[in-house]
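Possible race condition, two jobs.
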Amino acid sequence: MTVERSTPKLLAARAGVAERAVQSRHLRRVWGVPGTLLGVAAWPMDWRGHLHLRFNYWWQAHLLDCVVDAQLRSPNEARRQVVRRLVRGVRVRNLVGWTNDFYDDVAWLGLALLRAAKEVGVSRPSAVDAIAARLREGWTDHGGGGIWWKRDDDFKNVPANGPTAIFFARLAEAGGSRSDLVRSRSIVDWMEKALVDPESGLAWDGLHVHPTGEVREVETTIYSYCQGVLLGANLEQARTSTSPVWLDRVERLIRAVDKELAVHGVLRGHGGGDGGLFGGILLRYLAQAAVALPELDPGRAGAARLAADIVFLSAEAVWNNRTVAVSGPLFGPEWTTPAVVPSRERTPESDLSVQLGGWMALEAAALLERHDLRPS
């Protein structure tokens, strides 16, 4: 597949169009409460959507992350207020506080809140403290270490441990405890030891353990989501360490993703629902790696170029296979297949997650554009 060279700022413009479409179709107040916003889970929305009866906590965290990306791309006060209202919306709709029983959900909101504080100036330290406390309690020695996917469960997985490791590394960088960086590295090392396929170099999903701590079963499904968070977690360690091991793992993952999870450089999809976010998550961290690798180790320029190419090719496929709906483009779950406009029958395109995945892809490409990177 070839990519037409984009003129400067074209990729940023595409991301802006995606932003406006998602905001117009999905963002609504929570129960009419002033100063709140949330993303409605599906469009076209019915009365259940207007009432936010379906609350996908971690989708809202990624919505918040996307708005932070947009603010970095094109800062303005109106978007800062959207960040504030989304944060308040999550708290109002979650009812019981800032956390829930799923450690992966909590880690994603923690990451989004750290970015909102650092990049936008919208700070909620009590929320970050509550999230950090909840995640710290999730570590046990069952299965050799790691945190649980959910409280009172028997499953430990990369989707929970990856964002948690990134969260603790960034929390330490933001002035938190040095022990959080140690905790982050322990989680990354546990994932590498327990859940990386020695043949492909990709991360498996997770493992089930007996109450005694022994591993009962390993879930060997390969998701793009898992590769993204493991890549991001290793990249965070590389920023604070001179050891080459972290960048070795980052480079291994980039090359394995290109070989195993992309077709002509475009990431394969994982359908609607939660799967709609998977590709976008991976592209987010591939873009970060493409920017950071030349600075951390100029000798890894080839891996950085490969990561950038996957981002550009995937984002181009997202854009080329969009369809047009109310308020702008609508993206599909499989980026090499034309999207369809939902009708009475729900399609994956209905899901906020799928639209966020496409928006994330375009923001990842726009990030590279801001760093003067171009398609090969």
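Job #2 (started ~2 s after job #1):
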Amino acid sequence: MNILIWGGVILITIIIQSTLIPLISVRGIYPDVLLIIVVSYALLSGKESGVGMGFFAGLLQDLASGGIFGIGTLSKLSTGYIFGLAERKVFKEHVLLPILATLVATIFNGVAGLLFLVIFDYKVDLIAALTQNIMPLVCYNLIVAVPIHHVVYRLIQFTAE
């Protein structure tokens, strides 16, 4: 039952992120809601769950985006694992948790994606990607991090019962 609920959440999120959220983009940058869900879920549920959520979310994002297949999967999977490691070390109800986690996760996910592109021998302007894509994305993700983390926290509590 738990897998069906979270699978539904990810499917609904990818549909919204692919259709509605680009309408509020600024210079082509819009929040990565899937990343915030993966990070919140990993922080609240652990590394095994974070890897699963990151893999599924990244795979669906790769399928929906039409970009280079596998980059989103690998970067979200690794982000879910890294933040899942901190599950027992964080105070889950603290208001700064989603803000700091989203800040670090957005930078980590962006840099991981760039590194995977470099590993796969794509030409990447790292400075331009950091200043024109990742940093504005950090700001946008921070705006929506707290409400999304709160929803994920409540949904985890609901599915645990």
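The radius of gyration is 15 Å.
Logs attached separately.
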